[in-house]
Structure formats: structure tokens, C-alpha cells
Amino acid sequence: MDAAGLNHIDERLRSGEFRAILPYRTPVVLGHDLAGTVIDTGSEVTGFAAGDRVFGRPRDFRIGTLAERIAVDEADLALAPRSVSIVEAGSLPLVALTAWQALTEMGGVQSGQKVLIHAGAGGVGTIAIQLAKHLGAEVATTVSGMNADFVRGLGADVVVDYRNQDFVRELSGYDFVLDSLGGENLTRSFKVLRRGGVAVGISGPPTPAFARAAGLNPVLRLAISTLSLRTRVQARRLGVCYEFLLMRASGDQLRRIAELVDAGVIRPAVGATFPFGQTATALAALSAGGVRGKTVVTGPDHTA
Question: 90 and 1 in contact (C-beta within 8 Å)?
């Protein structure tokens, strides 16, 4: 690989936080984003050839992009956008797929709707703001004051400084919320939704619907149902819908995202880069927070 974006799920897997729904057997190589050049293809591969510049998010249990080489199912790859660097392409797959699936599949966001995206200066947030604007929505986001101009530049219409303002007091009547923080931030977000509105959480808690779709065993399904019961009850009392998203790999969706990037609709936001030999430092920096957009590790194969 030439570039591998880092994501919070990498640290959550390392710490065991997602053990129940993604039971990897250790040792495991982390890394969910890649951009690089195809070295060789299998005999049944028809969509790519050696020398192609690609980007992708390998499917669950086939991750491991923080390595010099990785074999990836062709269905999980797309040709990288031509208009951005390989590092910028490597920042995109997981966060862009997350934003796409949350906004278009689960939220059904349409022109004229009001959308709240938490943590707008983060990896998912920077892409979700741009995609929501492309879909015609009015976009609000929460950031620290120092990032206010940055997210306005991405297209945010309403910016709430979470350090000095309460988004529940500032916002109301929203159709959709994308929450990447979880906990109280998620449940308080229900209050800004109109009745029938949708909140999608990517930090949890997982829902029974997710557990069924993921084919988890009955014991895990019961545990997940219990874990998310309080959150689901709170949503129901307010007349809103809560759904949990664990994004899936999709080369088809990445092709559509690459078209939007090359059309200038979406621009990647890379806040920090680290060489391959400093991957552990990069993960620690990601956990510490404070980076706008994505942190990317550049591989031994990377060339400018």
C-alpha cells in the first residue's frame, strides 16, 4: 500500500471494545483504508489489472492495510479518484462509505431537509457535511470554535461551538442526525429531531436490527438488545428512530464517491501524515484527538 487512513475503529479493535460484534483472533494486523497500486490479480479478476491505482476498504475479517502488501477482494475496490493525491485517496474509503450509507441508505436525506452532523471537523464529519450539502440539505454541525471557519468552508450552514453552546438549545426540527460520539451526546440528539426523524449512531450502542442483519448468535443478540434498550426506549418516547451503523465494504459505492471527488463535490481532508515506521505513534495521536479530518500512514511503497 502507498497510503492507509487511520480510523477510530482501529483503536477500538486493539482495545477490545468491539470484541462482541467483530471477534477477531489475535494477532491481527489493523487498518481499514488503503490506496495504492495493484501488483497482481487473481485468475478470475476482471475489473482491475496490474498497475491500476486503486482505493478501498477491505471487508470485515479481511482487514490489515497497515502492511506493505494486502490481498483484497475486487468487490471492495475502486479506481482511485484522479484529481487527488494517493494520500488523500487513502483517507477516504471508510469515512466516505460511512457518510454515504448513513445519509443515503439509512437516513434517506433529501433536498430541503435539515441535517445535524456531530464532530464536523473529524474524519466522518468532514465528508458527511459535503455529501449532505450535495444532497441539498441544510447542514448544522458541532465543533470547537477554532474549527468553525473550517467546517463553514466545507458547506456547514449552522455551526455550534460545543464548548460554549448547547446544541439542544440551539437546534430543533431536524430530520436527521449523524452521531459519532455516542453516550449522552447521542440520546440528547434525539431532542433536536422532529417526530419521525432519524438518528444514526456509529459509536453505538448496536441495535437488535443490526444484530439480526449481521447474523450474530442468539446470545449476542440478546446481549445487544439489553445494551441498547435504554437508548431505544428514549428514542421511542420522543417519536424518533435510532439506528446503529457499522459500515460495510462496497467498491460500487466507492466508484460513485470517486466521481463526486473528481467533480469537485467532495474534497478529502487530511490533517496529519506519518511514515510507515511511526504507525504506533500515529494511532496514539489519533486517540489523543485534535486532528482535522483524517490521519494517514504512508507506506514503504509511497512515492510523491
Answer: yes
Distance CA 277, CA 22 (A): 27
Closest CA to 58 of 84, 21, 29, 19: 29
Domain parsing of the chain, residue ranges: 3-92+268-298, 94-244
Half-sphere exposure of 211 (CA within 13 A, CB side): 19
- CATH code: domain 94-244 is 3.40.50.720
pLDDT attached to residue 164: 96
Residue 62 confidence (pLDDT) above 70: yes
CA distance 178 to 199: 6
Per the DSSP assignment, residues forming a β-bridge with 174 are 193
pTM for this prediction:
0.95
Class of the CATH-defined domain 3-92+268-298? alpha beta
Per-residue pLDDT reduced to its tens digit, 150-159: 999 999 999 9
Give yes or no for residue 38 having a pLDDT over 80: yes
